[in-house]
Amino acid sequence: xxxxxxxxxxxSTILAFALIPLxxxxxxxxxxxxxxxxxxxxxSQGDIQLSLVVFVVSSGISQLFVGSLLDSFGRYxxxxxxxxxxxxxxxVIAITHNLAVVLxxxxxxxxxxxxIVVGKRAFFMDTYSGDKLKHYTSLFSIIWxxxxxxxxxxxxxxHHYFGWExxxxxxxxxxxxxxxxxxxxxxxxxxxxxxxxLRPLLNVYRSKLSTTDFTISLIILGLCFSMVIMYNMAxxxxxxxxxxQSAVITGNFSLLSGVAVMAGGLLSKSSMRxxxxxxxxxxGTFLLALSVLMIISLYYLPSLFxxxxxxxxxxxxxxxxxxxxxxxxxxRFTSNAGIVSGITGGGTYIITSLVSYTLVSTLELxxxxxxxxxxxxxxxxxxxSFIFFIQAQRxxxxxxxxxxEDLGAVGVLASNASISSERR
Length: 424
Prior knowledge:
Blueprint: H1 9-19, H2 22-28, H3 34-40, H4 45-73, H5 76-95, H6 99-127, H7 130-144, H8 146-162, H9 165-185, H10 198-209, H11 212-242, H12 247-270, H13 276-300, H14 304-330, H15 337-362, H16 368-423
Helix pairs in contact: 1-6, 1-9, 2-8, 3-4, 4-6, 4-15, 5-6, 5-9, 6-7, 6-15, 7-12, 7-14, 8-12, 11-12, 11-14, 11-15, 11-16, 12-14, 13-14, 13-16
């Protein structure tokens, strides 16, 4: 098996960072094309939005399980096969005239992206440790935010000049380029394969998910990401059908949304030394206040300008919160890197798909005030989750302290017994 060479670690790290936003590119690049695709396939906007949902659900469920495959069979070969499958599925979507084929390919893409992204997150845990690993994991959500910044902007441009199909030709071609670079410079980073046995694996999953503060952090991540996905699903129809603007404008507005998410992530990274409780308190307060202000401002000043100002403010706080809890979740455990990475990404995606699609399908999100109400609902859920997280983390800290004290007491007793034995 080809293992990663020492002199290729730097370029492999760059390639890993290049692939981490792949899931975001797969969801965001064709957002400006939603209304045109609905006309092209002769279907409703809900069916086109479903192509986004099935990808997110497929990727989320897959991420829960692919970590064990990656820990057992390695990252490299599975990653190469997944890149080939993803690229081919992009080309199939671009040439088909059948929506059912599009949906099927999106499911396949979700599985392939899960293998790629989880493998690349595990790459960092295989290759780095200590402060360097913490530094890189804190960059994950910031790097991921490059997708919602650039993908809709590129997609709007490609759609305007070459049609909606060009988005998927672009994705497929870019993936093939990275595939060639991976074959040239990549290699296996897993040092010891974990045996693929079902019962021990289920025990690992159970132990991770039964850790309350970790599970609540996944819920918070999913709720934060729901804000972005909900906006992505609703904004093309609001901008292009309600306000009669072009796909380029949709892409530009999504770019501003992505910049806000990245700015929030950078702000979180710069405040890594601050107390978790302080950051949570500030984020919860801002989310609730901004969502209420969004509803009021959209009611009295219903315009695209008002919408994007409110969205940018909320997405910045969401990005701050996401980055904070993403680093926490990945750093919660030191073993089973592939599984932990998979549970974190998969749990986030599943919660996101459930929350965002429920809100989009039950509420009329082309109404600006109702969109503001949807943001308020998510903000309330996030703030409530903060309370449960703080309680769970305090219990975890107390439990660890008691375990340490018990271990210390056992050590003292053993030491006293040894001294007594020596005296005798």
